[in-house]
Write a structure and sequence with these properties.
The complex is a heterodimer. Chain A is mostly helical. Chain A has a domain of 182 residues: MetI-like (MetI-like fold, Orthogonal Bundle). Chain A is 73% helix and 0% strand. Chain A contains 14 helices and no strands. Chain A starts with 7 loop residues before the first helix and ends in a 7-residue tail after the last helix. In chain B, 74% of the residues lie in helices and 0% in strands. The longest helix of chain B is centred in the first third of the chain and has 33 residues. The chains are: A mainly alpha, B mainly alpha. The interface between A and B is large, with 120 and 114 residues.
Chain lengths: 304, 302
């Protein structure tokens, strides 16, 4: 737990300068605080208000939550997002750590830097661009890996985007754009492990696997946790991927796939603002709890 | 360390088993190079082909400049230069948000790190929590809020939310706590410098790296955002390029057989995707060093 009260700043502060400094500090943060209230706090309050009222503004208790939870799409989209998150987080942790360890182990010199940069380029295609690229990659008629798709038994685009495959496909897309940056970070963290620790492991007779498993991975732990938490935040908001896929398949696949799509549909297709707010509140509660626990417990963020 | 111990691993390194494991590791790394690079390469080449060539030619061959130009003309002809309008929209939204973000996040991060005021710790923790929250969960509530103040359909409905950038504040905070000694500021104050003067003349010149870093992250995040503008600016004239290119999808006959004469062919869609990512790609190439150090700095004070 690093959220202990600051000692350095306050104790050292000069008595004469303190009130002047304090006023200045407030002035410097004022603009940001305004935005924090307007676009962080206020929408949250707004969502809570709408979630517990009806279209006429009367208090309705938890009825919006019950109605939305009973919607035939709710459980489906919840389980879609959960499954996707499992695939995404597991593949991210496994492959990022393995690739970073291999890059580090092989010590390829300048080639290693080139590889890291190549891994990282798709990051520039985040968002809609990555989905468009992968629509092509997954369409056997134009894909450069169409023979691979054929071997796996997929002959048409429709077969590739069958509902059962979607969580995996979205994982591939997210991994393609997101993993490179993390490989670079993990590699940097591996480089920061003190040389004598590695040397000691070697002298003790540890082989490559043992060093990786017993020394390097434990020392990467906090980076892995940091990656998982940010990847969770990114993954829980799944929207653009299924939305574009549903456009590309004229609504056959990807419609109402994720919770965010469902809030969008509640709000803008079914005119049920209160229902949309209820789902938003549920997402907010989950994400604020996860973030709060992480900030308080991980000892990762130093709020001095 | 004794000589034999030193020599042992070197001998092991030459053993056939070791060569095999290096080969295995090398091929894993190579497979992933193909995975990450092949789609980008394909996209570059696809823009130079006709739809026929895209289906029948080898996927990794160059089409022709002629086809590339034809694709460009067909793409710009769509809705009378819509793609250029979207590009301009994206540039305007990203640029204005960038300026506001920097003007607010840098002083805020500075104040959190270098000054004392009431509520500082609360603000810092709030910043951390909001930073780790998926921002898309707030899209619908934001819509409700901005609808109440009649901003929906104006560019401010995305520029203002974009400008709220807690991650930038946190990065700046980390930067100042680690890289700038407080004594330096104290000395300037002793010399009679005002608080604003200290920030303007001492802190800001030292902050160039973090300004670049926050600017980079903010620009990329805003340029690639989809959900927020999709909800706030449904009108085609106001779409940023990401949403615009997404909307092209429903005009591609191979994805949507019902489209009529206004069709967009697949190579033109690939070209549109390239146009959409080029600014970010350029920034990426120039900023790769910054980015790495920034991702590391974003999480630790060591």
């Amino acid at each position: 737990m690093t959220l202990t009260p600051s000692s350095a700043g306050s104790v050292r502060g000069r008595p004469r300068g303190t009130s002047r400094q304090s006023r200045a500090g407030v002035a410097f943060v004022a603009g940001y605080v305004l935005l924090l209230v307007a676009f962080g706090v206020l929408p949250t309050c707004y969502a809570i208000y709408f979630a517990f009222t009806d279209a006429g503004g009367a208090f309705t208790g938890i009825s919006n939550f019950v109605t939305t939870a009973q919607d035939f799409r709710f459980v489906d989209s919840l389980s879609h997002v959960a499954l996707y998150l499992v695939f995404w987080l597991v593949s991210l942790v496994v492959f990022v750590v393995v690739l970073a360890l291999l890059l580090h182990k092989l010590s390829l010199g300048p080639l290693s830097q080139a590889l890291r940069f190549l891994y990282y380029i798709p990051g520039a295609l985040a968002g809609a661009a990555s989905v468009l690229v992968w629509l092509f990659m997954l369409d056997p008629t134009v894909s450069p890996v169409s023979s691979l798709l054929e071997t796996l038994g997929f002959h048409t685009f429709g077969e590739v985007i069958a509902p059962g495959n979607l969580a995996l496909l979205f994982t591939i897309i997210a991994f393609w754009t997101g993993a490179g940056g993390w490989i670079v970070v993990m590699y940097g963290a591996l480089n920061n492990i003190p040389k004598d620790v590695m040397e000691a492991a070697r002298i003790d007779g540890a082989n490559g696997w043992q060093t990786a498993w017993r020394v390097q991975i434990p020392m990467l732990r906090k980076w892995i946790v940091y990656m998982v938490i940010l990847a969770f935040a990114g993954g829980a908001q799944l929207f653009v991927e299924p939305q574009l896929l549903s456009l590309a398949s004229t609504g056959v696949a990807g419609r109402d796939y994720s919770l965010n799509q469902l809030t969008y549909d509640f709000a803008f297709q079914m005119n049920n603002i209160n229902g949309a707010a209820a789902v938003s509140v549920e997402l907010l509660v989950v994400s604020v709890s996860v973030a709060g626990v992480f900030v308080a417990r991980s000892g990762f963020f130093d709020a001095d | 360390m004794s000589r034999t111990r030193h020599g042992e691993p070197r001998r092991r390194r030459r053993s056939p088993q070791h060569v095999a494991s290096r080969l295995l590791a090398g091929s894993v790394l190579t497979v992933f190079v193909v995975f990450f690079v092949l789609p980008v390469l394909w996209l570059l080449l696809a823009a130079t082909k006709t739809d026929q060539q895209l289906v029948h030619d080898n996927p990794l061959t160059f089409g022709s400049w002629h086809a590339f130009k034809a694709n460009w003309h067909a793409l710009t002809a769509f809705q009378d230069n819509a793609i250029l309008l979207w590009l301009r929209n994206s540039a305007v939204y990203a640029a204005i948000s960038l300026v506001i973000t920097l003007c607010l996040a840098i002083p805020a991060g500075y104040a959190l790190a270098m000054t004392e005021f009431r509520g500082r710790r609360t603000l810092l923790i709030a910043t951390l929590v909001v930073m780790l929250m998926p921002n898309a969960t707030l899209v619908v509530p934001l819509f409700l809020e901005l609808n109440a103040v009649h901003l929906i359909g104006t560019m401010w409905s995305i520029i203002l939310p974009y400008s709220f950038y807690p991650f930038g504040v946190y990065l700046t905070y980390i930067y100042f706590t680690t890289a700038v000694p407080k004594d330096l500021l104290a000395a300037a104050r002793m010399d009679g410098c005002s608080e604003f003067g200290v920030f303007r003349h001492i802190a800001l010149p030292l902050a160039t790296p973090v300004i670049a870093l926050v600017g980079f992250f903010s620009f990329v995040a805003n340029w690639t955002n989809y959900f927020l503008p999709y909800v706030m600016l449904p009108d085609s004239d106001q779409m940023p390029i990401q949403v615009g290119v997404g909307s092209l999808l429903s005009n591609v006959p191979s994805f949507n057989p019902t489209v009529g004469t206004l069709a967009i062919q697949r190579p033109q869609l690939a070209l549109a995707t390239l146009v959409a990512i080029t600014p970010v790609l350029v920034v990426f190439l120039f900023a790769q060093r910054f980015l790495v150090s920034g991702m590391l700095a974003g999480a630790t004070k060591e």
